[in-house]
Structures are given as structure tokens and as C-alpha cells.
Amino acid sequence: MKHKPRMLIFAGYGLNCEEETKYAFDSAGGTADIVHINDLIDGHVRIDEYQALAFPGGFSYGDDLGSGNAFANKVRNTIGDRLFEYVQGDKLVIGICNGFQILTNLGLLPSLYKSYDRQVALLHNGSARYTVRWVDVEVNNTTPWLRGITKITLPIAHGEGRFYADKKTLQTIRKKRLVALTYIKGDIYKMSKLPHNPNGAMDDIAGITDDTGRVMGLMPHPERAVSFTQLPYWTLMKEQYLRRGKKIPEHGPGFALFENAAKYFN
Amino acid sequence: MAHRIKAASKVGDTRSGVRKNMFESLHLEGKISQIWIADVYTIDAELPDYLWTQAGAVFSNPVIHTMVSYSEQTPIEDRVRSLSRLEPVQKGFSWSIEVGFLPGVTDNIGSTAREALEQVSRRDFNDEEGVYSSQITYINGDISSDDLNKVAASLANPLIQRISTKDFTSYIKDGGMDILVPKVRLVKNIEVQEVNLNIDDDELVRLGKSGIQNKDGSRRGPLALDKESMKAIQAYYKKRKRNPTDVELEAIAQTWSEHCKHTIFANPIDSDSDGLFKTYIKRATEEIRKKRGKKDICVSVFSDNSGGIRFDNKHVVTHKVETHNSPSALDPFGGAVTGIVGVNRDALGFGLGAKPVINTYGFCFSNPEVEMPLFRDKHLKDKMLSPRQIMEGVIAGVNAGGNCSGIPTPQGFMYFDDRYRGKPLVFVGTVGITPMKINGKVSYQKQARSGDYIVVIGGRVGLDGIHGATFSSETLDSGSPVSAVQIGDPITQKKLSDALIKEARDDGLYTSITDNGAGGLSCSVAEMAKESGGCFVYLDKIPLKYSGLDPWQIWISESQERMTLAVPKNNWPRFADLMRRRGVESTIIGLFTDSGKCIVEHRGKRIVNLDMSFLHEGFPKKHLVTSYAAPIHTEPHIVSSKTHTKILHALLQRFNIAGYEAVSSQYDHEVQGGSVTKPLQGKGRVNADATITKPVLTSEKGIALSQALYPSYGDIDMYHMTACGIDTAIRNIIAAGGTLDTIAILDNFCWCSPHLSQRLGELKRSLQACYDYAVAYGTPYISGKDSMYNDFRGFDLKGKPVEISIPPTVLISAIGIVADVKKSLTIDVKIPGDLIYILGETHDELGGSEYFAHYNAVGNTVPKVDVSKNKRLYKAFSACTRKGLIASAISVGRGGLAIALARMAMSGMMGVDIALTHIPGTVSRDDYALYSETQGRIVVTINPAYRKRFEAQMSAIPYRCIGKVVDTSIFQIAGKDKHILVRDTVEKLLQSYTLPFKNL
Asked: Using one digit for the tens of pLDDT, what is the confidence trace for B217-258?
């Protein structure tokens, strides 16, 4: 039997997508542990026991002080140095939604100069309102997280997801090919007629990586799209499959991300 | 010395644009040229100088913010120099408005800011230190001071917030807004009063009505105890040859309150000596359970914080629906947050703790487009918030509470009637899940044992939520906290929730647990003490938000986010350590005993010494008498129009039919990964009547939820109103793929003026229907709640007294288990050529319908439910679901068949071609066929290949194939004589359906 890669999923202080993130990674061939941030701070658990880290979605500290900011502040002041050292190794790190906001506040993304200071921001949505819906995104770089994927349909659920960087930073991000995902007009757009960019993100940016591609942050939630029955139009698709005599799929599009992560270490 | 840090966007803040639109909607179009927003932190603590830079970096992001930092001692010219780095100061503004909280009001951002600063400075702040949040809005434009007042009023609720304003000149002259520190300062002698009960009956009644007299002669506010109750208390203390303490009297008042004891449902009524609850609700459940024997789905009913049913062999699913009406009328945002976060604790407090997995909501509002100003006082100073403010505040409150807690909120509704102007109804529900057994022990039973510690975890106690307590809150300087309303703190509760149900529960660290809700500790501790037989509390141990609280206040405060547990002594070190590591405060406040007494000590003195039996059973029963006269309405004479396209558009635009995507899409229904069928269905994103969610990701099973209410039918008959609610709630689940034998229901009664015998008579009729229809369907009640006093007494703009009572409202919530979520159904028509069937009969039942309401009529022919026919239909339908014969289905509800068909077509964004010839039932006219609200009907679409198999299944059911799905977008319905009644495109229909709440 192959050794299953281990992922540590952060928890505590209002993070709340840890269980479904664990379910996604576990069913994709890995094995994940949910670890409270305080257990890392106290030294009960060490991050270097794990090949992958996930900062899951949620509402850490209720988005007070700006989404992800207070949690990032806590991490930086406690296990920051260990984390900055960790990402130098051959590890995978993902930040989903609130996790992406934490990674940008920690300076782990885009991490242009390895100085771990804030270089981009995720601002209040154009509507200034929390929005839950599905979107289409296109893959723009070669991060191992998205290997083999060109387009993907995923849900978003956030109030602060509007990607922002100043002109110079954005140019550097583009030059280094750090944009991982952009919102596009795909199936969801055709079905729903909703704007393809759900939050007014600059250049339609939905996710970025650092220059190794191993650290990725994204606003959409792949862990909420790992099963067919999580899709917004699955009952329609089921009828269409049945009438064409086709088999109904088991997995949803988000499954591939977690499979990529599990395969990366094998 | 107070310090200030301001963070203002330098890259454009979308909140400013939204706020500008909001201001313009206050009749200020074209007057506002620009808006800026700055987030402000006032820090009342000393930090070494070098740390202020770091602090600024914590409160702002250099990529997007300009940050300004100064202290009270900073000279004005230096302050102005810093402030002039802000864009509004550079460009110039007309007014700046600062909104912050009053002393003692929960300030979540302030608490997080404090914790962040503690981390930066690597020390804990003391009780004297604090961090407070506020926000400044800078407006530039042609704004008069009258306009300014309007704008400021729209930004703040004076009950909980303070507003200060300045024009540009004074802002510069003063060096910014004044630095205010909203710290609570209570300076007084803390004492326990003896209350003299050796008084005559008149004085006794006054004591019960206006409350205990303070030393200065003022009264503390109502105990809400009537003469009989006061006499019972008097007799109890006479026997003991002493007077009660104020703490005892307040505690008895809490325990005996309508809110806790549900006296109207418990008291004998007419010839029903067991009272309404036992006679109609509990008896129904007992009979159903007995009849079903081994197939009983109930696990725990009525006795716990939530009701529980079997999910599978390994799990119990719980459900509870609460109302939070009065708090939401005063502070819609805070009331709604506290409501949703509060009902989450009913899941956490089930058995040894269930994990909250789904939230539900239901709002009853008055028309937001009609202002109708109302005041609570004769002098027209205490103004009710506008219907729009209430609606927007409540919607935002459930958004904040539900989303922050990471619990999906898929299921909900909005219902409108102008009689909700005095009090909105805010229903909030939470479904939980827990393993049947934990460490080999049954998880849904609990038993605090004598000798266990009484432990309180979570938030601290303040003056928030003390009944009618009055404090001088006129000036900011006096530092008076606000007692009337609470604001929820979802993150404090999330920490507590995770620590409990993800760790402490499974480690077996406690023996019992309950929520601290109404009545605070006085109720939760006394309630749990029933399990062991008594309690002993050291009041001094209870952690407080600020000093200066009187003992009675500590004992009954309803400060939020707290749970009470029984922790065995041996487990305490592990429990305390776990809570510390999870950032949750936990404190031993006493011991559970078997003394038969509830004893509380304070500073070594015994301040409560009550017999448990008196506290819980000493309440005198009162015999209620009802009367009933059926109302008669004029029967409308509506001439059936030749064409109904316009009327259908008008109905689609009615508030009670229109879509509310703006609400559904701001409540996260995907979190926890279990979403199966969603609140908005199909390409057209039409609101569904039921949703299905998987609570256990590794299981194929799902939970189906729906809710139903028909207040308009109650204007004709409460019996049929209630029956229709039950039928609709059940049918919604059947049409979504659930089965009748897995469904349990919950009742929520919101009534008014219960002192009137006619109102009580209507209540009794409603409960009779509760019994009749639950038993007939075999769907047990597992939990319920009543709120009896939904009346408003106040004044209109002219100072004329106004009384507004809500229409009596019964919400029925249904919960069902779906065996295989892959067989779930949605409402959207799917494939052109699919056949459309109506199942069930249609009669001339338009009384209380939306069609009649469109003509401002009520009528008398209220829909009546035929259970035996419906049961046959639902069972046949479920058999088809199981066999996969159905492509889409909708339960026919408000607005009737025409609206149901329109919703299906809009959802699928495909046309339908319908003929209403020979539809089953006695319906006599085309317009009635379109809009009758006869219950028990489902419309389905099927693959034509399944026609024979489907019709064979339906052989004993009245049905008719009424048309098919077409490959154009034309929605067409023909009447009996094949005359076209409705013809339009689905796109046009959708425009009407989405119009009313488009800009919400």
C-alpha cells in the first residue's frame, strides 16, 4: 500500500470549513487532521509532520479588523517563523476563501520578495454584501494544485473577495505567472446569466500562487464541489444523462484539486 | 489616556457606494457628491510608544488603507497634520458622522481588536483597559442640517448606538471627532434588599405589575406576576416567617413567566383540565408513537432544548424553532443575530450536545413601502423604526449570525401583512445531529448528579437583556449600559460550540448541559438542578463584564453565548484545561446537590433559599375560559377576466409570492458541504418550498426541511388555517423527495391579546386542528414554542393612541429524512416534451387567497384539508420518486396552480403549454382553477417514456395530464373552453417575479 500523504487543516477562532475540507482530502486518497491553532502554538502538534497545510474557509474572528487579518496576526505572532520556514520545503499549502484572506495577510501570497509582508488585498465585494453562488473559473498557471484542469465550476461564499493589487504589483504577479484562476463566462454564466465576475475582482482574478506554485489561495470553495449532488444543476444534469443512457457521475469538479494534492506526494 | 487609530481606504471602498445609494433613497437624490468611510478604534490602554506603529499595522492594511494614529494628548495641530492624510480631509467634506456603541453594548470588533493588541503587546489587558470600535462616514454634498439628521438616523439605532456629527470647520478646529470612551462605570452600593410582603392586596398587585421598589422610590420594572401568583408567593413566605430577598422574587418571576412556563398552554382551559399543550400537542405525539410501535421515529420529544428523531441507526437529528419578536422590533439587527445564535444553542443543549448543521428562518413583516410612523410614547420622542429598517436589519442579522457561525441557512421565507407593523415575527430554527451513543452511553439523555460542579462557559454577565430594568442612559458620561437589547457574538459561541461538541462531549467530560436563555442562570441552573434535586451557587464566582452589578441582576441577566454544564469533580481539571486551550472561559459557580433546595450565596450571606418544589410547581393554576364566534366576510363578486396575463403578472409581484433571491443568496447554504437541493432552483433561480441537506458527508441520507403558514386563512377560520399549514409543510417535503413516514413537525404559535376569550377560543380551534391533522397524517410534534403577547400599544404621528395586534400566526415546520439524496427533486421543468400532470383535486377554495387579496377581499371559502385522499396521493407520489419516474415537482401553494406552473417554468426557463380542461375537482370557473389554493395538490413533469408506469402508480389518485414542456419560452394556459387565458414569455414572468425585492 502506498503511503498516504498527510494534510494539516487549521481550525479555531471561527474557521468553519475544516470538516468538509478533511472529507475532500480523505476521499481523494490523502489523510487529513484537523488541528486547533492553539495546539500548534502550544507545541502539541508540529506542522513539519505534514506534507500539506490547508487554511480552510470560515469567518476567523468574525472578519473583524478585515477578513483574515486577526487570524493572520495571531499566526504571525506565534508560529510565523516556523510557517515561513515550512513553505521553503517541498510542501503544498492551500488557502480557501477565508484561508486565502489569511495567506495574503500573512504575506505568503503572492510572496513576491519572500519578505512576508502584505502585497495584495481582498476587498469588500462590489455589492458590499456577502454573496453565495456558483462561478466558472479558468486555470492560468502550472500550479500542482490545478494540474490537468483547464476550466472548473465551483461555488463562492464571501463578503470580501474582490482581489486588489496596485499597478506595479499586478504587473509583477502577471510577469511571474502567479495568477492561478480567473473568473470566466462558462456554463454557470450561460445558465444563470449572472455576471461572470461575482465580486468585481481586478482582472477577474479568483486565485493566485507564489512563484513555486505550491502555495495557492483561491476564493471559490473546491471542497463544496467534490460530489455530483453538490452541483447547482445536478437534478437537470441527471435527467439529461439518464435520457442519453449515460452513467451519473459520482464526483464533482472540485475533487480533482484534492486528488492532485494527494498524487503530488506519490 | 485614550488613543485613536483610524483606517480609511485609499483604493476605493465599495461600502461607500452602497451607503451613498442608501442615503440617496432618503430623498437626497443628486445632493450627495461623495462618501468616505473610516473604521475607528479607540484604545483605552497604555502601550509603549514603539508599539503604536505595530498596533496601527494590525488595524489596517498598508496595501489599501491610509492609517492615522494619535492620542488625547497629541496637540491639535499635529492631529490635523495626521488627519490631512485622509482623502476626505484633503478634498474637504460637508459633514462627518461618527457612530459607535453605547456603554455596555456588545462590541465584537472592539473585542477582537483588544485580543489582537494583547497579542502585539504580549500582555493581557486589565478590566480598566479596553478597545472600542466606531465608524466615521464623511459626506460631501449639499446637505442641510435637517438632511444630516435623516442620514444620521438611518445609520444608527439610538437604543444601542451613539451618534456625533461635525461640519468640516469644527472638525479641523477640534482636530477630528471628539474622543469618547464608552466604558461602563457603575458606582453604587451593591446590596441585597428584603422585599416586604406583609402588604395589602392592592400593594401586592402593584408589586407584581410594576416591580420591586428601589430606595429612591422608583420601580425596577415588571415582575409580570398576577395577583394569584403574588398571593401564592406571599403564603409561601408567611409559612417560613420571613420576607423574600429581591433576588428570590426576581428569580421566581423569571421561572414563572409566560416565556418560561407557557402558562396559557399549560393552564386548564374550558373542559380540558390538562391544558392546551397536553391535550392537543403532547397527546397527539403520544398516540402517534404508540400506534407506530417499532416504527416510531421519535427519540426525544418536548423534554429537552430541541426535539430529536432518528436519522439512521447511528444518529439522532434534532430540530427547534424559536421566535425573537420583541427584541427584533427594538433592534432588528441585534435581535435577529441573538435569535439565530440563540437557537443554535438549543441544538448544543440537546442531550449532551448536538452539532448545529442547518439553520432556518422565517420573517413576517409589514409592507416596507408604507412608512406608517409609530411612537412608543405620547410625546412622540420614542419612535419605532420604519418597516424598511426593521426588514433590512433582521435580514442582515440572520446573515451575520448564520454566516459567521458556519451553519448553512438554506430554508426560509418572508410573509407580509400590515398587522405586523407593531411587531415583526422573526422565526429562527436550528437542526442538529448527534451520534445515538457516545462512548457506549446514550447521548440524548443527561443527568446532573449531586456533587457535580455547576460550570458556566462562554460569555460574561452584564446588564444586557435584563427584563424591564431601567437605567439612566441619558448621557454618555454617566456610563449607563443598555439593558433592553443584546447583540450576539457568533465567534465567542463558535469557539464554545467547537470545544463542546467536537471535543469535550466525546471525551465524556460532563454529565449534563443546557442553554442560558430566558431568565439567565436563574432558569438554567434551577432547571438542571431538577435532575440532581438541588443546587448551591456562589454568586461571587460568576464572571462579570464589568463591576457594579446587583446580585439579582447577575442571577437573571440574559447575557448571550453562555451554556451551563454539570462537570464531575474528577473531570474538572481536564475540562478546564481543554476550555483554556480553546480560548473559552469556564468557571465553577457552585455545586449540584440533592437537598431539594435552590440556594445562592453572596459574600458569605445566603440570598436565595427556595424549595425546588415551590420554584417549579408552586405556580397557581388559573382556569381559562374561551368563547368563539366565527367571522363572516362579504363574498367578493369578481368578474372572471377573459385574459389573465396581466393578473398573473400582478400576482407574481405580490410580496407573498415574489422571489427573494437577495435574501437567499446572502445566506450561505453551501457551508459544511452538505447542500443537495438549494433554496434557489433551476436556471431562473426561483425560490423553492423545501431544501435537502446531507448532515453526514459519508452517508447517502439527507434531511428535508420546509415551513408553512397561512395567517390570511386565519381571518376566516383558525382551524383550517392550521390544517393547511400542516398539510403544506408536509406536502412540500413529499414534493422534494421525502416520505410521509419519516416526517416530524414543529409548532410555533405567535398569538395576540390572550386576555380576550375570543382570541383564546381561536387558539383552541387552532390547537384542535393541530391534534386532528398530526394524528391523521401520523406526523408527531417533536418540539414547539409559543409567543402570546404580540400586541403593540403606542401612538401615531398625531399623538392618537394606536393598537396593532398581529394576525394570529401558526408556523408549522416539517423535517423529514430522505433515504437517498440522489433521488431528490427540484421544481424546475427540465426537458422539452415532458408531460405535466396535476395530482389532486381543485375546488372553489379562494377564501384568504392571494387572488382575493389582489381584489382586497377575504371571502369565506377557506381551503379544507382532506387527509385520507392526500395520504393516498403522497404515498403514490413517493413510490414514483423511489422508482425515479419524476423529473420535477412542485407543491401547489399560495397563488394556486397558475403560480405553481409559472414557478416551475421560470425555474427551468422553458415554456409550458397547458389546458385546464377536466382537471379533477369541483372547481367551477377558469379564474378559480388558476388561483384556488386547494390543499393536497402537486404538479409534476415526467419523461413521456414513463407515462404508463406513472399513471399505473397513480391509478387510485385523481390526476390529469394538463400539458407539456415546450422548447420555446412561451408560457401558455388555456381555459376550459380552450380559450387562451395566459400567454407570455417566461423571461417576462421572471421579470415580474423578481421585481419587488430586486433592490433589497
From this structure: 888 878 888 899 999 999 999 999 999 999 999 999 888 887
Mutate to test the interface with A, among B21, B63, B584 (most CBs of A within 10 A): B63
Q: Which residues of chain B have pLDDT under 50?
A: 467-482
| Chain A residue numbers touching B669 (CB-CB < 8 A) | 132
Across A145-166, b (16+ Cβ under 10 Å) vs e yields bbbebeebbbbbbbbbbbbbbe
pLDDT at B817: 97
Per-residue model confidence as pLDDT tens digits over B801-858: 999 999 999 999 999 999 999 999 999 999 999 999 999 999 999 999 999 999 999 9
Q: Residue A113 phi/psi, 5° resolution? A: -125, 15
**Cell numbers of B492, please?**
465567542
**Is there a contact between B14 and A128 if contact means CB atoms under 8 Å apart?**
yes
Name the residue facing A239 among B62, B120, B830 (closest C-beta): B830
Cβ separation of A12 and B583 shorter than 8 Å?
Answer: yes
Q: Which residues are CB-contacts of B122 (< 8 A; sequence separation ≥ 6)?
A: none
Chain A nearest CA to B582, separation (Å): 7
Query: Whole-angstrom Cα distance, residue A77 to residue B125?
Result: 17
Nearest residue, CB atoms, B495 vs list A13, A19, A42: A13
* Cell numbers standing for residue B863: 381551503
C-alpha distances (whole Å) from B387 to each of B160, B166, B694, B854, B919 are 19, 29, 36, 21, 42
SS3 B536: strand
CB contact under 8 A, A164 and B63: yes
Residue B469 has what pLDDT? 30
B669 φ, ψ to 5°?
-110, 5
Q: Which residues, at least 6 apart from B348, have a Cβ–Cβ distance to it below 8 Å?
A: B305, B354, B356, B432, B496, B497, B500, B501, B513, B515, B563
CA B194 – CA B178 distance, rounded (Å): 44
Provide the pLDDT for residue B474: 29
- Whether residue A26 contacts residue A66, with contact meaning beta carbons closer than 8 Å, is answered with no
- Locate B418 and state its grid cell: 400590515
Contact B499/B578 with Cβ under 8 angstroms? yes
Model confidence, pTM: 0.94
Distance, in Å, from the CA atom of B184 to the CA atom of B476, rounded to the nearest integer, reads 10
**Min Cα–Cα distance to chain B from A149, Å:** 22
